[in-house]
# Entry
Amino acid sequence: MRRPRVRIANVHPDSHREYRLAQGLPRYNSEWIELQNVSELPVNVAGYFIINGGGYEFQINVIGRESLILRRGQSMLVLTGMPDNPKDPARCYIAEEATRIFLQRQEYIWNVEEDVAFLYKSREDYENDPKSYIDYYRYTRMANPQSETPSGVEA
# Structure
């Protein structure tokens, strides 16, 4: 039996944040995490839960929607900041090529030097067993080793 599978395809911290902050021009949408459906089946990612190495956590929820379906091969970007049009109350833009969700934060959440992201099917899965993640993504400024298991966590 085939199982739906979503993976963390990329975490992109804003490597120019110090310059942007010094200029008084922070761009929180310059950082994001990309999730991708790598299975043959559509996947409902509503309720999926992500936590990073610094303890920042968020759940994928879209106001006014009970589901958020990623088709086979489709990606979703979860951007830290606000939509381009601040008067637009939408937090989610669904498109053929990629769905974009905005966390509406006004602070950076991904560490530029190194960080790790863990993906769970729900907050409850994380609370019941932090080792029950369905995917993780570790990166450093120099490279993305992705090959080693995070310290203190079994693969």
User: Anything to note?
Assistant: The chain has one domain: 6-140. The longest helix spans residues 17-22. The chain is about 10% helix and 30% strand.
